[in-house]
Amino acid sequence: MITGKNYIGEEQSAKGSKTFHTFNPKLNIPTEWTFYEADIKEIEAAVEKASKAFDPYSNLPYVQRAKFLNAIADEIAVLGEQLITVFMQESGLPEGRALGERGRTMGQLRAFAALLLEGSWVAATIDTAQPSREPMPKVDLRKMMVPIGPIAVFGASNFPLAFSTAGGDMASALAAGCPVVVKSHPMHAGTGELVSSAIIKAAQRTGMPDGVFSNLNSSDVAVGQLLTMHPKIKGVGFTGSFNGGMALYRLANQRKEPIPVFAEMGSINPVVALPGALKEKGAYWAAQYAGSITLGAGQFCTNPGLILGIKGASFSNFINTLSAEIEKIEPACMLHPNIYDGYQRGKQELSAQPRTEKITDLKGEIPPNHAVQRILAVDAKVFLENPILHREVFGPFSIVVSCSDKEELVHVINHLEGQLTGTILGDEDELKRSPKVANALMKRVGRIIFNGVPTGVEVCPSMMHGGPFPASTDSRFTSVGTSAIKRWVRPVSFQSWPEELLPQALQNKNVLGIMRQVNGENTDRNI
Ligand code: NAP
């Protein structure tokens, strides 16, 4: 049952006077549930509990934390049909997507549980003492990663499960040993409350300290800002708009003690279509890209918003086929009216720029909150001169840019902002003959793709989901995949520390059986 209350640790609470509703974009009406926005006392109480939980939680054996993460996945499964129904009502997304996202969310939690047991994430590094070294004796030094403290996580609007209450930010922070206070996304508060109930049940079942997790409702920016400014919050995870991410980043840096904000923001995910690829498989790629641009109503941070090619018959044919293919696709419902309005504004603003051509223009009766896809064509020189054309339009929108030659193509890539992904379509010989294109693109992105589409982000250790600014605030870290844990830990060296007082990961006897670097050698042996 949805109560509309906040979770302050294990306690459900509705002390604030401000209420709000989520929205069913398909029916174009508010949902039936009333949510209570967290007031300042509830925010304070949640952070205080998280701070108190930090020591007992971070000192638990990794196997206990792993049990907790697996139990969250189990409890999410127990929510069953109700979670799927509320997800669909609050997002307008179809059942298949709800099921897929739930599976991904549970899979992420289990992957972090497995990582905890595998143990190499602590990067245990041991350099034993050499008392007789000349001219100076060498001290015993042992280093490992430790958690940074309570983390504020902002639920994303475009992934109500996998990037929200029990999503990648939260799972990675809990795995690292950091309690989490979630600021639920206002448009998915019901989904968030159900998932929170599962997390609390899992915490109780596995004996976690009260305060290891809290969930706060809010319908405007104040709750998130207060959380970010709270001295006992030590890091922030965010996925959303550039403006939202940067507002939090600036706030965090104005604190007496600045803290890291890992914000994953906008990206237009450039795609370079080399001539050979289009000559051989132009129709194939056009169909693939029509699907990728419109997937999930274009509401993916990896949506291909920019396609670059070299003028000629192959590129013209590709553009025509892409336009024909995309016009066959039914407009889909967007997540909520704000995202829909943002899409309409962005689409209109970019389409109104001089010397741009609308390649698609679907007409007819369109249901409310449904996004009509748009492809815009422009010459490279126009694109280079007009920064408005470089902006992300969040939805099923893409710009096709025609370059005179490879040199101009490289010039355009060099003028792009940082991106999550970049894609090259071509054959392998063409790729070999285009080192400048590949090199320019690699410098701009976090993930570079050959002959594929950027949508679809695998959750695995080798995934990089982040990129040079403004794609994210710190290009060294990923928000997807098990490496995401690295955002919430910091290295500590223990010098000449009594052996029995060292954390288990650094003791001579390798009781955890993890891989460690001992005197330069990677090994799981005892010392
Ligand atoms: P958003 O406006 O950035 O909001 C995301 C979360 O951040 C919300 O919980 C919001 O709180 C909070 N927030 C926003 N601005 C803030 C501020 N100045 N201070 C403190 N908290 C703030 O994103 P959205 O509502 O999910 O979608 C809006 C637009 O974001 C989309 O149209 C799209 O352009 C972009 N977006 C991009 C991605 C991506 O991956 N690139 C993903 C999702 C959305 P409240 O809503 O409670 O105020």
TrEMBL record:
The keyword Metal-binding belongs to this UniProt entry's keyword annotation: no
Aldehyde dehydrogenase domain mapped to chain residues: 17-460
Record key words, sorted: Oxidoreductase
InterPro entries (UniProt xref): Ald_DH/histidinol_DH, Ald_DH_C, Ald_DH_N, Aldehyde_DH_dom, Aldehyde_DH_Superfamily, ALDH_KGSADH
Annotated GO MF terms: oxidoreductase activity, acting on the aldehyde or oxo group of donors, NAD or NADP as acceptor
The protein's name in its UniProt record: Ketoglutarate semialdehyde dehydrogenase
Organism of this sequence: Arenibacter certesii
